[in-house]
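Lab notebook page, bench 4
Experiment: in silico fold of construct C2
Operator: M.H.
Input chain length: 456 residues
Purpose: comparison with the prior construct
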Amino acid sequence: MNYEFDKNKINRALEVLTEYLNAPGEDNDKLIEDEKKIDSKRISVINDILKPLINDFFNNKISIIDFKSKIDSTNKQNNLWGFRGIKGQMFFNMIVNIADDLEECEQEIKSAISLPENDTNAKSKIKNLQSYVKRIGEDFVESGGSNYKKPRIKSIPFFLSYFWQIQDNTIWPVYYTNSVNVMEDLNLFLKVDDLASNYITFKEINYKLSKIFSEKSNAEFSLYEVEHVFWFKGGNIFLSDENKSENISAEVTQQDFKLARLPDSYIPPVVFVLPLIAKGSDEITKIAKDSGTHLPTAFEKYIDIAFSILGYETKRLGQGSGRNPDGIAYNYDDSYAIIWDAKVRQNDYSIGTDDRTIKEYIGVHSRELKKRKSFRNIYYLIISSNFKEDFDDAICNLKMDTDVNEIILLEVDALVEMVNIKLRDPIQVSLGPDGIQRLFTLSGILNKQRVQELSI
C-alpha cells in the first residue's frame, strides 16, 4: 500500500470517529444497533442469495439477462447497498440494453465482477470494463442512439466494488459516492483523473482507517464499521429518518466569519438555510424581518435560486401575483417543466387543505405548458419541511383533473441534497431521465434518502 496519512489527516479522521462514538447516549445506542442489523442482514442476503446467484452466473446456469433481473429483484427487496440507483442497476441495464453482442457482454461482465487477485488485477478489471463500456457507448450513439441511454464510465468503481464486496467483504470496500465526498471534504482523499487509481486509493484509506479506528476505540472496526462512521458524517441512506443526525444547526442568529477551518460544504448559504426557513420558527421569522423581507417571500426566492443552480430556466410568480403557483422551472432539453409551490410550516403540511385552489391554477399552467410550449411532461411540486401522510386522495384527484404527470411532495432537505450532488458532479448528475427527472416519476413524498440514492 502506498497511501500514507500524515498527522493532520489522522487527527481529522479521529475527530470524525469521536463524533460518531460520542453521539447522544440512547440515540447512539439505537444507531449502532440499527447498523448492526443492517450488517447482519447484508451477510444473510450475501450467503443465502447473492453468492449463489453470482456462482450460477459464473457457471453458466443463468444468462446475463436473468442475472441482471435477479440482481435487480434482490436489491429492490433488500435495499442494503444502494445498488438500485444510477451507478448500480441502471448502469447494468444500460450496458446490457445497448450491447449488440450479448455473448461478448456476458463475458466482459463475468470477467469484470469476478474477485480480483490483488490491487493490480483490480485496476486492470476497472480499466478493461472502462474500455468496453466506452466502445459500446460510442457505437450506440454513432448508430443513432441517445446519449441518455449510454452507460456512464464514472459508475464503474461503484458497480464493480459492489460485486467484489459481496464475494469478500473483508478486503473490498464499496466505492460509495457519499463516503468519497466526505473523505474529500475532510482532505483525506484527493481524486485523480484515473478511476482505477482512485478506487485503489479509496481501498487503502479504508484499510488505514480500519486500523486507526480499531486502535483508538479498542474495538475491531471492519470495513462495514468504517462505512458506519462515514454514514454518520455524511448521512446514511439505509437508516430510517428518525435515526439520522441533524446536519443543520438551528443557530443562525448571525454569520460567523471566524472560521476554525476552511468550509467544505458545496451548498451555497441561500440553499443551505432553506430547511430552517421551511420550519418557520419565531427565531428565523425575526431574522427575515430584520433582513427586510417576509419569510414566505424569502423561501420562494431561495427555492427559485436552487432551481437555477440545478440548471433550470426559472420563472418566479410568487407572492402577490394572484391565483398562481409560486414558480415554474423549465428544462427545454428534456421537454419537461416543474410547477412548484412553497409552504412554510412549523407543522407537517397537508395537501388536502389547498387542493381546490391548486387544481385551478395548475390546470391553467399545465395546459399552457403542454399545448403552447410543447412540454411532454409536467410535474407539480409542493416544497415544505415535512408532510402529513393523508395525500393519496388529493394526489389522485389532481392527476385526474389536470394535465400534470405526477404530484411530488418535496421535503426541502431533498432539494438541498439535489443542489449538493449537482454541484459535486455536474456532468454525472443530469436534469434528464437518467438523472434528476427520474426522481419526479413517482407521486408522493420525495425525501433526501431517495435523492442520495441517485448519486450513491
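Observations: Residues 7-240 form one domain. The CA atoms of residues 30 and 243 lie 8 Å apart.
Next step: discuss at group meeting.
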